[in-house]
Amino acid sequence: MEKLISDVINSNSQYWIQKRNTHVINVYDDFKVRDALKVLASNKILSVPVIERATGDYLGFIDMNDILHSIIDSFLANNSQQDGHDWVRLCHDVSVSEKFANQPVSVLINQSKKDFFIPVDESGSIHQLIDEIFSKGIHRVIVVGEDANTKGIISQTDILEFILENRDEIKGADFEKPIGQLKDLVEKDVITINAEVMTIQCYYVMMKHSKQSIALTGKHGEIIGNLSITDLRGLDPENFELLLSPAIDFWNKTNSKSKICVVPSSTTFKEIINILYKNRLHRLWLSSKEEGGCYGTVTIGNIMKYFSRDQHEVIRRNSLSSSSGSLNLNSSSNSISKKPLTPVKICPIVEEK
């Protein structure tokens, strides 16, 4: 973890060679929102750096989270809460609104307050990057060199690759332990919603509760889908009305080649990281016979927080938790006590091959 960022991004591993040779897509600050959305949609990406045309400096990132927050905040500011949320009118207005589409993209930078722009020095260590940046919820950063020139972009997913590549050198991490025994990695405060609810309403609930995802449940309460910002990939003003469809239909359309990923609590930490990295996922749902079904999630953000701790603290806390042999859902005063989610009935179990 003490390797320098510069040594990692300039290494000769195939992963980093390919990443260095990949063109970084960006937009200028005077681009219109409509143009930026088309760039995101055509490249099927969720985030793009914004560059000031006059100076060539990076100003920050704009992502689908910023756009969604901007749209919903603007709509709610102009419509009485007592009248309910006229999402049909919202999506129609967004699709045809020249005012929204013709805004300079710079005004939407970090509208969601979720992913602050933080350039990092390549002379810092990977551990510093995790501890000071990624564990705080930042998803990606611009790396700059001593000459102040941009060296590239590094993301949380890149850190997963680093962890897998350097697993044998990382001391104190319980890679072989079942995820159910690593209580600090499990997020239990999850939100579920009926899968037939309008998609835009689901995103509003996510935004209201500051969540990155929401589980979609079927007629019997079983989890049949998982809606997140990732599902907005490819959306542009011309097809915003897709957000009016039932959430499960929208999810199936945007996830035609993948299904919700549910793993048993006996899955090892190493396998969890592998599954997230190989499938380019941000979270996995956990199932447990003892808990009666799905009872929480493990996210890349949780993993970043885990590795942000001092290694001696990791060893100490894990040795204490291992004595019980199982996950205590209410062991912390900050734990949120909730009934376990309804048992998963049709979600496939993802296993490492």
UniProtKB/TrEMBL annotation:
Domain CBS: 20-78, 111-169, 255-314
Keyword Phosphoprotein: no
Pfam families: CBS
Sorted UniProt keywords: CBS domain, Repeat
Gene3D superfamilies, alphabetized: CBS-domain (3.10.580.10)
Keyword Manganese annotated: no
PROSITE patterns with a match to the protein in the record: CBS (PS51371)
InterPro entries (alphabetical): AMPK_gamma/SDS23_families (IPR050511), CBS_dom (IPR000644), CBS_dom_sf (IPR046342)
Protein name: CBS domain-containing protein
Organism, scientific name: Dictyostelium discoideum
Taxonomy of the source species: Eukaryota, Amoebozoa, Evosea, Eumycetozoa, Dictyostelia
